[in-house]
Write a structure and sequence with these properties.
single chain; two-stranded antiparallel sheet; seven-stranded mixed β-sheet; 7 helices
């Protein structure tokens, strides 16, 4: 599924609470995630920032690039000090590929025992959307808003509905999602 420039503009609006760069702090991040069922970070800079503050995401999704520029190392290198499972997938820029979504499912499932770093060949930017549908209620998903800060999204029924409606409007209706009733 390839997203048009018009559809990408829709996605530029933060999906949750925007913590502006100047106000991101350890205290604010900790208070945002302290009761989270699962913590997911999307993006190299976001992953590095939260891990520097001592927050270890259950799943981090990185592509080794920041603002389309290759980084020396992929985000989440601090996680490698722990026992971290690394998975890889392909997701071309401007897309949400079925293969990437399957790897995200696997990563979320595997994160119950150890943190998981998903390294994306291509681009990870849009993969926050299916993650909103794949993680359990009460999870927190964090992603970067370029030049602005970190967006904190708490997963609840309203967030899921917004994500599902948006994805269906973009022609993506094959993801399914997490079944909290079965998982509990």
């Amino acid at each position: 599924m390839f997203l048009s420039p018009e559809n990408l503009r829709i996605l530029k609006e933060p999906f949750g609470l925007l913590l502006e760069n100047k106000s991101v702090s350890k205290v604010k991040l900790y208070s945002s995630v302290k009761h989270a069922k699962l913590i997911v970070s999307v993006g190299d800079a976001t992953t590095d920032r939260v891990t520097l503050y001592g927050i270890i995401p259950s799943v981090c999704v990185v592509d080794g690039r920041e603002r389309r520029v290759q980084r020396r190392t992929a985000g989440g290198d601090l996680l490698l000090q722990n026992q971290v499972l690394q998975l890889r997938c392909s997701n071309p820029a401007g897309t949400i590929s079925k293969g990437a979504v399957q790897v995200l499912r696997d990563a979320i499932k595997a994160s119950s025992t150890n943190p998981v770093r998903v390294i994306v060949e291509g681009e990870e930017d849009l993969l926050a959307l299916p993650i909103f549908l794949l993680v359990p209620y009460g999870s927190i998903v964090m992603y970067g808003q370029p030049f602005k800060g970190i967006v904190i999204v708490k997963i609840d029924s309203e967030t899921r509905k917004r994500a599902k409606d948006l994805m269906e409007s973009l022609g993506i209706d094959w993801i399914g999602g997490y079944d909290d009733a079965v998982a509990e």
